Amino acid sequence: MLGGITHSVTAHSIMKNILCMQLLLIFPVVLSGQVPESANVQRAEMKKLEWMVGNWKGTGWAEMGPQGRKEFTQTETIQSKVDGLVLVVEGRGESKDNGSTLHNTWAFVSYDERIQTFHWRSFTGEGRLTDAKTTVNAEMVQWEFQMPQLGRFRYTRTRTEKGECFVMGEREEDNHTWHKLIEYTLRRQQ
């Protein structure tokens, strides 16, 4: 009799474990069809930056300290990733004089619905990492950050009437005056 009870309890435990395993396998499939409301809010905000997506090329100039002003060719690839939740920006500026790299940047942009703000995080070829305060509207994105010993910087990217991107970078001087450091215009490439 005791053997029958043990067999019944063991069979019951095995069936319970099998049922639990099936539920664990099915549960992610059921959830995968459901999009959290936060993701929908993030996507809606990120749509404001759709105009930036594409391959871009153009020219501009940059103040290079004692070396003076240098003209350069800029290329950028901007892609929407993770079903529209992240924008990846990769940019490279090459000197018109000799083709050397003047700046090399990789950034990602996202929206945090909890604090209702965009994040612009960039990495440069010089080894710098910046987390920038970001402002976005339908025709413009501006990111601003502080660099130790160098001060405060801001970059503004504007969509022009011709569908081009105009980018301007500035550095704050004397806690109130902005000095232009870089400027370039990009055209969408086919």
The gist of it:
This protein has 190 residues and is of the alpha+beta class. The protein contains two helices and ten strands.
Protein architecture, described:
The chain is globular and about 80 Å long. It contains two helices and ten strands, in the order H-H-E-E-E-E-E-E-E-E-E-E. Strand 5 and strand 6 form a beta hairpin. The protein has a ten-stranded antiparallel barrel with strand order 1-2-3-4-5-6-7-8-9-10. The model has no long low-confidence stretch (mean pLDDT 85). The longest helix has 31 residues. It has two domains: 33 residues; 147 residues, Lipocalin, CATH 2.40.128. It is of the alpha+beta class and 190 residues long.
Q: What's the SSE blueprint?
A:
Elements: H1 2-32, H2 37-46, E1 54-63, E2 69-81, E3 86-95, E4 101-112, E5 117-124, E6 129-137, E7 140-147, E8 151-159, E9 165-173, E10 177-188
Antiparallel strand pairs: 1-2, 1-10, 2-3, 3-4, 4-5, 5-6, 6-7, 7-8, 8-9, 9-10
